[in-house]
Amino acid sequence: MEKTDVVEHVEKSSINSPERNHFGDVKLVVDGEVVLVPTPSPDPKDPLNLPTWRKWVLLLIVSAFGCSSVVLASGLGAIFTNVVQSYPGEEARAQDLMIYPALFMGVGNFISMPFTPVIGRRPIFLISAAVLMASSIGCAYSTSLSTHIAARNIMALAAGQSEALCPTIVEEIHFLHERARKLSWFIAIQTTFVGVFFCTSTFQVAAWGWRWWYGFFAIWNGLVFLFVIVFGTEPLYKRPDEAATGEVHLSVDAQGEYHTDEEGSTIVRVTTKHGVVLDPVRYGPRTWKYDLKPWSKLGEWRDVVTFLKDVVVGCCHPLLFWLLLLNGAFLGIYVFQATTFAPILIPPPYHIPFTSLGYIQGAQVFVCLIALPILGYGSDALVKWMSRRNNGLFKPEYRLPTLAIPAIAGVASAIIFGYAAASPAQWHWSAIAVPFNGVYFAFLGANIVGLTYAADSFPLKTASNFVVICAGRGFIAFGLSYAVIPSVQSLGYDGTMNIEAGMAAGLSALGIGAYFCGPALRRLGERYFGLGASRGHPSTSGV
């Protein structure tokens, strides 16, 4: 291969060019072409160079895993009235079956994600799928409420990987300009299957009993485990830090070889029209033997401690702390409503049949029909349009305007749900069902915007920042949902929802401040929080 083939689109520039601001701001559009961020390498084993069909297969696998995780962790609401009949006299304690998984999903992220910079994402994904399968069997064969709760808590440890690990995998195999729509596809596929299972769960339980409900997902997760073995290639890849900006600086030695060099004056920008040329001779080909390796040695064991430090530091940064509070607020409202909607709709005055409850949660499929174009394709189209208006320069804050629609819908839905639940005789049953799905739409918005904004703002700390948001919101949701019964008893449904809606509205409004103050806060993160350097371990954005 000719040396010039490696550098398809280059410019001569100083490393101190005005275009090089700080991490997060990148030149996304050059001469009408979209720059590939992060910069892919000529290595065929680079996950960014996977063929499109392999990326879609991996996307489907993580979606299938996420589907079972969501249904098992939060889908018990539709069949809860049937499950609780197995534990007479323990109805109040049975609420722990739905409440504790939110906590343990967050704990699962803290336990497993720190090991991914060392051994890779693939082994953690394999172990999580196996544990999810085994714990489903444990739930099916539980002999008491205590063993049932214990099995569900173990299940939640594995299911938690659907929150941080799965989005990280999706993000690492795609470029910046397509992240939002790929994350939206991940959530849309996951939610479509979730909606189908919500619709069928009540019929499954009515016909087979709730134990076979777990049995079905044990089989499902067994199949997911097999697909992960075959197609779940390792998505983590070492790159120079500056590849996260879409600009790799190279220097040329006496033999004409290119080397990564921060002082080099040749800037490499790979674009959608001028792609990278693969070099299997230098790097070796991608083989099935390589893809089937159960784990890879990608870092040092001290990187586990470094990852945990990054999580702690991320929790202290104003932008990331705001994102986890925002996600936690909407997730808390959703968990509250998922816990209470069935007991509200089954008795008078609504008399909704038990077998019809699944249709209400199944309506989340239609939520995806709204979320995918607005939060996915809409977000990516908006950032490209705004970047072109800004002389091709992308800023992560361009992700934030798409938060407005789901935030308004979520706050309004929470208030309506509260008043309808407090006075059911005065409200139609749809005042419970529609707001329930409206809050889910708001959570999707907070989730997609939060993850893409965090990944774009601090691309070298994506995985640890995802843990901050996903695990942190789980703890917040646990705290809010654990107070469901006491708050309803003291404040009523309307009072509880008004308070939580007010918190969500206030946190959403802070997005306006984040849009204008975000660049300064990102500079603060790079200078004082160490969020702009990889600290020696592989970048979690695939860099």
How is this structure best described in words?
The chain has 543 residues and is mainly alpha-helical. It has one domain (47-237, 303-528): Growth Hormone, Chain: A (Up-down Bundle). Helix content is 62%, strand content 4%. The chain is built from 19 helices and 8 strands. It has helices spanning 52-74, 80-83, 96-112, 116-119, 121-140, 145-159, 165-172, 179-208, 210-231, 280-283, 288-291, 302-316, 318-345, 357-362, 364-389, 404-422, 430-457, 462-482, 484-528; strands spanning 10-12, 26-27, 29-30, 33-34, 248-252, 258-260, 266-268, 393-394. The strands form 3 sheets. Strands 1-7-5-6 form a 4-stranded antiparallel beta sheet, with no helix packed on it. Strand 3 and strand 4 form a beta hairpin. Helix 3 runs parallel beside helix 6 (145-159). The longest helix is centred in the last third of the chain and has 45 residues, at 484-528.
Quick take:
The chain has 543 residues and is mainly alpha-helical. The protein has one domain: Growth Hormone, Chain: A (Up-down Bundle), CATH 1.20.1250.
Beta-strand fraction estimate: under 5%
CATH class: Mainly Alpha
Element-by-element helix/strand order: EEEEHHHHHHHHHEEEHHHHHHEHHHH
CATH architecture verdict: Up-down Bundle
What does the radius of gyration come to?
24 Å
